[in-house]
Amino acid sequence: MSSDDVNKGRRRFLVATTAVVGGVGVGLAAVPFIKSWMPSAKAQAIGGPVEVNIGKLKEGQLLKVQWRGQTIGVLRRTPEMVADLAKVDGVLADPESAKADQPEYVSGEARALNPEFLVVNMHCTHLGCIPQMIPQVGPQPFDENWNGGFYCPCHKSKFDLSGRVFKGVPAPTNLKIPPYSFLDDSTVMIGVSPQGAV
């Protein structure tokens, strides 16, 4: 074997080894760069939109999801629930939602783009507890004329099935309505207003 053959073999080995080490180095350097494209946990908590599948939600069922660190409820109301909303106007502090924190495109007693679906921030406007949904109509320990709604066990605030606050309770305002839109009949996008809405 000549020294030229040995040098060529050594050269090939060194070139191949250098290429492999260089490739690994480039790969390791690329990982942090590619990870920088991903949103951080803090950015995710600040809140990108959240898609919610409501296709299998049954009438009277409440689905809770997280958006921007808050619990958002999506309630599929029955036709009776929607029809009964007007019955409690007289006991509500803000039946027209004049002082409520909600998008302009959500109005009326239903406080919804589609009266069948209520999309609401579940945190009580008093101190942030999460009220329980009690949809049954009839006397309750906290209200003998209960027509269904949300009851906050922390300080006894009451809200109807549109999240409107009752008179004489600690909560100062109606439950908040986040921006949202329907992508189709079975998907709600929380955090994004309908196209063209203010």
Descriptive report:
With 198 residues, the protein is of the alpha+beta class. The protein has two domains: 1-38; 43-190, Rieske [2Fe-2S] iron-sulphur domain (Rieske Iron-sulfur Protein). It contains three helices and nine strands. The strands form three sheets. The protein has a three-stranded antiparallel β-sheet, with no helix packed on it. A three-stranded antiparallel β-sheet has the order 2-3-4. The chain is elongated.
Keywords:
198 residues; alpha+beta; Rieske Iron-sulfur Protein; 3-stranded antiparallel beta sheet; 3 helices; 9 strands
Give a brief outline of the structure.
The protein is an alpha+beta fold. Helix content is 23%, strand content 20%.
SSE inventory with pairings:
Elements (H helix, E strand, L loop, with lengths): L2 H33 L5 H7 L2 E4 L8 E6 L2 E7 L2 H5 L33 E5 L10 E3 L14 E3 L6 E2 L20 E5 L2 E4 L8
Antiparallel strand pairs: 1-9, 2-3, 3-4, 5-6, 6-7, 8-9
Contiguous uncertain segments of 5+ residues: none
The gross shape turns out to be: elongated
Indicate the multimeric state: single chain
Q: How many beta-strand runs?
A: 9
The run of helices and strands is HHEEEHEEEEEE
CATH class of the largest domain: Mainly Beta
Strand arrangement in the largest pleated sheet: 1-9-8
> Mean pLDDT, as a whole number?
86
Task: Output the CATH homologous superfamily of the largest domain.
Answer: Rieske [2Fe-2S] iron-sulphur domain
Domain count: the total is 2
Largest sheet: 3 strands, antiparallel
Helix content: 10-25%
Straight-line N-to-C gap = 82 Å
Instruction: Note the beta-strand portion.
Output: 15-25%
Name of the CATH architecture of the largest domain? 3-layer Sandwich
* Overall SS class: alpha+beta
CATH fold field value of the largest domain: Rieske Iron-sulfur Protein
